[in-house]
Amino acid sequence: MKTGATKNQTTIGLVPKLRFPEFRDAEPWKPVSLGKASTPITERVGERKFTPVSISAGIGFVPQADKFGRDISGNQYQLYTLVSDGDFVYNKGNSLKFPQGCVYQLQGWGQVAAPNVFISFRLKDGYSDVFFQNCFEQNIHGKQLQKHITSGARSNGLLNISKEHFFGVEIPTPSPAEQQKIADCLSSLDEVIAAQGRKVEALKIHKKGLMQQLFPREGETQPRLRFPEFAEDWEEQSVENFGRVVTGSTPSTAQPAFYGGGIPFVSPADISDLRYVDQTKTTLTAGGFAETRHIRAGSTLFVCIGSTIGKVAQNIRDCATNQQINAVVPSSKHSDGFVYFALSFASERIALLAGKQAVPIINKSLFSSVRLLAPKLAEQQRIADCLSSLDALITAATQKLDTIKTHKQGLMQQLFPIVEDEQ
């Protein structure tokens, strides 16, 4: 069934699968253009001083100085748009999450200066900010804008989306009362997500502080916090004394038979903030694995090349890695867990050894020669056990956070009508 469909937009039913009881007999939702629901914002900042911002997909507003390392507004600053809390801004830049650009509402900033190539707008009375922001999170705008994008046509790195096309986007919209009911429901979930996110961050901060107590400070040979049965000084060792250092290698990509098996092939993109790596985007067959340098389970993987230099993880299963990763396969004199925590604790210091290069790199020789302090095996194991228990809490809390986010996504798919774009 098509209800209120435009030439290029198919709206299936314009009635969500899940509706609050008091609205089950209400009329179907109606498509409302952003041009009708909002007012464009065009006021320039001029000589007034505000923070120049950009927008990052999945994050929202960020100061230009944080995103680019400097303020890039330059001579264009006076032409920037004055955006206030409650206003929305559309960034035409594409990303993996939002290929046709992202929209975010400014909250908690007061007023900022947004690039005038972005499109800024404010919703009119009768349209819920939270309701519309959740529509933008589902990329309802992008599904309609994709037909207007000409491949390769960009201005300042941005997609060639005109204001006319953007404000022509139609959002399936119920009555103000139903908008608010949906907004309240999703806002309550957002509060749960934020609270769980704070719990994850608090655990990570606690772990970082504990590690600072469990490992000696620079120039010292004993930690500030120690298990009572240990008293000896720690000994300085090089990374290569911790175990065998292995630089990854990549099987020939011209051999399809090497890929698509069940053996993990780790790249920096597979390493997250969590400790363990198990599932990887690329996997190897037995034949492909035979072409690599094998890394046994429980080793420590350290990214030594590129923008993510210093990322650290442990592999759950036997694996191989690409050339951007040096692995330390611990000897029998060292605890697998301790080696991971020792390298994690020293990761920022080690990363600095790359210096300032176009492509930062710490070669195998330099990485192997890095000096670290370590106690005897028994104390290593006690430290690893202690910190591993915290890692388990962090992992569980992170998984719970992901579950709540997934629940919200599923709920949103039920609370909003299906909108498809005809190609």
UniProtKB/TrEMBL annotation:
Entries under InterPro entries matching the protein: Restrct_endonuc_typeI_TRD (IPR000055), Restrct_endonuc_typeI_TRD_sf (IPR044946), Type-I_RS_S_subunit (IPR052021)
Signal sequence, renumbered to the chain: none
Biological processes per GO annotation: DNA restriction-modification system
GO molecular function annotations of the record: DNA binding; endonuclease activity
Keywords: DNA-binding, Endonuclease, Hydrolase, Nuclease, Restriction system
Annotated ranges, domain Type I restriction modification DNA specificity: 146-196, 232-405
Family that this chain belongs to: Belongs to the type-I restriction system S methylase family.
Protein name: Restriction endonuclease subunit R
Annotated source species: Pseudacidovorax intermedius
